[in-house]
Structures are given as structure tokens and as C-alpha cells.
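Incident log, entry 3
Record: Magnesium transporter MgtE (551 residues)
Problem: checksum mismatch between cached and fresh output.
Input:
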Amino acid sequence: MTGHPQQDQPDLTATDIAHLRAMIAHDQGKRARRLLKAMHPAKVASLLETLTPQQRIAAWHQVDARTEPKVLAHLSAAMRAQLARDLEVDAPPSDSALSTADSPIDDAPETQLHLVLDALDQGKLKRISRLFSKLHPARIAGLLESLPATERAAAWDMVEGERTSKVLRHLHQEVRRRLATEMDLEHLVEAARGLEADDLVDLIQDLPVATGRQILEAMDRRERERLQSMLSYPEDSAGGLMNMDQIAVRANIKIGTLLRYLRLREDLPSNTDKFFVIDRKHHYQGILRTRRVLTARPETMVSDLMETDFEPVLADQPSDAVARRFEEQDLSSAPVVDADGRLLGRITIDDVVDVIREQAAHAMMGMAGLDEETDMFAPVLASSRRRAVWLGINLITAFLAAWVIGLFEGTLQQVVALAVLMPIVASMGGIAGSQTLTLVIRGLATGQLAGGNTRILLLKEAGIGLLNGLLWALVVAALAILWFGNWAIGGIIAVAILLNLLCAAVAGVAIPLLMRRLGIDPALAGSVVLTTVTDIVGFFAFLGLATLILL
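Fresh output:
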């Protein structure tokens, strides 16, 4: 039975109305949602009665979906009808159009993105809230990353409070940082409490120092000490990847004792495929696999089942080396120890998958000189600044190639055909060199390429360059002779292509190795240097031979 909300909930204050109106006016959706969520449904109904139609629609979109039926029950019949008209709902106000009806969602990401964009365009944000409530946090993160900055902020406000931390975990670093810095501190701390320790460390490292310190201060002493210990290690090290939720046991206890302890726990940490055996001083001694515990007799000692030959991961070991070990040995988890062999924590497969994904994205983006630009809708100024550096470097290399061409200006003026054929030489060398460069960078990333086998790879790539050079030199020479009717030009371009492909093969191996030795990321700068080398060598060989033979 419904009645007037003013009679049901008389404690509505002018402050509540003013706060809600201010939040709506400043697009502070998340704050409005928290304010309304803390209120009794009758009070929410009273607030809605005091607002203008536009304010009422905006406020209604912030009402929690599960609270909607209760709020509707406290609205007058006239207000329910008015609200339905304002929202352009065809069905009766009491129907599921204004409630949480569960309708199937198309699994296609393109369809889901289209639904979100339509809802944003029409200002019907509650549709986004309902869609998000049915999606996995990883899919929500993907949709948020697909939106421009302004629309992303509006959609982010529609993520339910308890799911905020889970969505933050799946966002790429740059997007996560931007959304987190836009949140008010209270809400950010609340979301941080829902993150696993390793994910929380990643978030704190992404945030400004002052904000990260405030999050730490909001944690209890024990949690703060754990986080500070993890933050003391570099982000790209095993210590930066590890979590401290491991279960450690002593070697001198019985399996039955361990099982009784496990039954006392409410839950086991995720990916608990092994327990770690330590001594009284917390030094790592070995592992005890979970499957052995489940099948062993209760009176069996841990020392009889433990494996002492399982090597731990050193806390300062690079994260890419950790990822290689997980890949090679099919690990789900591994212990992390300090230099003295004391157990610090563990690394799990979900953290390693994130490392592998980041490395793949870094390599792909780096080949275009984009480095860490994981947000395709990043601000124009920030993106321009990143790309301008590599455009400037590329301009310098282009001027080097142009300078080489300028040395043979007289040759080009007398033999116009050379200008027509010249791009072919540079293009063939660039493609061949890029193939070798990609192979070498992959070998360096996976650890397959080291000092002992680089000479073999260099000889192999030189052989490939020689064979492909001979093949395509003959093809291009034949086409040049048919085109211009000049045997000399055909011979010149054939020799130039052969020399450039050989040079490309050697440069494709040598450049990334040299850059790595100098501490430069070959995935980021290798292609720029390689293109410069193949262009200069190609132009110099082609035009130099033409000058010697034709003039």
C-alpha cells in the first residue's frame, strides 16, 4: 500500500536536498549514489518529490537497482506516472521497465559497447548500471577502455560500489590511474580495501605519491606493513609481483595437524596448489603439494612428503625471467625469498599472465614508437607529446637519408629512371630487416637468444638475406630491363638489392643486441634505427653504383 512519502519519512532536511542537487549539477554520480543508498527508500522518494523533472531523472539514474521497487512503493501514483513519462517508459510504472528485470545480454563486445554508447547519448545511465550488473568485471573494464574520457567518467559512475575494486583490477595501467585520480579519497580507499595486496600495490604505484600515502594510512597497521614491504621492491621484479597470502608450514608437523588448521580457515587463497615449508626462522625449505596433502594419511609427517628441490624465486629477479620460468615449467605458483632465503610471499599464475600481456602490448606498441600508450582515448596533449619525440627522431633519420640522396643529385638529374626505381631498393631492405628484427626481439624477450648462439643466428640470417637477395635481385632486374630497356640499370638495381638485403639481415641481428647492451629497449627504438640503416645503405649502394657505371 502506498502513501505520501512526507507522511512516511518526515525527517527530510534542506541539507539533503541541497547536497543532492549540488551533486547532480556537478555530475558527481558516485557521491549521489552513495548518498541515496544510505537513505531509507521513503526518504529517497521524498527527495524525488522535491526535484525538478530534469533533476529527478538524473537522481533516479543514481538509485540502486535493487532499491528501485521500494522507492516506487513510497511514491504517489501521480509521481510514479510522471516519472514513467519523464523516462519515456512505455510499460506501466509498476512493471519491470522500472525495476531490475533480467533480460539476456548479447555476448558480442561490439553490441555491448553500442548499448553503452546509446545509453550515454540518450542520458539513460541506469541502462548502463543494469548492463554492468550482468557482466564480468573484466568485460566492464574493456567497455570502459573503449570509451572517450568524458563518456568513460559517466559510465564509471554506474559501476556498483562493491564491484569498483574488481573493475579497477582489470583496467590497463594508464586508464586505471586516470579513473582512480578522479575518485574522491573516501571512495578510492573503499575500493582499495577490496583489492588483493599485489593489485593494491600496483594501484598505489600508479597514483600520485600523496594519494598513495593516504591510502596506506587508511589501512590497519598489519596491512600497511605488508604493503610497505611489497612497495620496497621495483615494480618489474618478483618482489613487486608477489602476494603475501601464502600458507607456510613446518616440516616437523603431521598431515592431520595441517588439515585441522586448514579446516579452521574460512577459505584458502586462490591458486593454492602448494604449501611452502619453512623452519623456525622462516627460511624456505621446500614445497608440499596440495594433492599430496589430500591423499596422505593423517599421521604422515610433512617432511616425508615435501619436495626440497623446488627452486624459489629471488625477490630481485626480473619479472620477465619469472614469466619465462612459469611458462617453461607450467607453474601455478612459486615461492619468493630474499637474499638470505627467508620466505617473503608467492607469485601466482594470474600475476604472470598480466606480465606476459603487458610485455606483448609493450612490444607491439613499441614497434610503432607508442611505448606505454595503452589508452587509445588518452588526452590529445599527452598523446601528442609522446608521439612527437619519435616523429622528431624519425625526421632526423629522414634527413640523413635525404642527405645521402643529395650527394648524387647530378646522377639523378641525368638518369631519371633511378628516381623511379630508388624506393624499391629501400623498401625491400626495410621489410627484410624488420623480419629479422622482430625475430631477434622475440628471442631476447623469451630468453632464447644469448651470447653463445648469436653468431649462429647471424650466419643463418645472412644466408637467408643472400638467398632472398639473389632471388629478388634477378626478378627486379628483369622488370627494370623490360621497363626501361637498359641492361646497366637492371644490373645496378640487382646488386643494390642484394647488398641491402645482406645489410638488413646483419643490422636486424646487431641493432637489438647492441641496444640491449646499452640499456635501450630494442622494441621501442629498433625499427627507427633499422629503417635509417637500410635506407642509407640502399640509396648509397644504388646511386653510388649508378654514378660509377652510368656517368
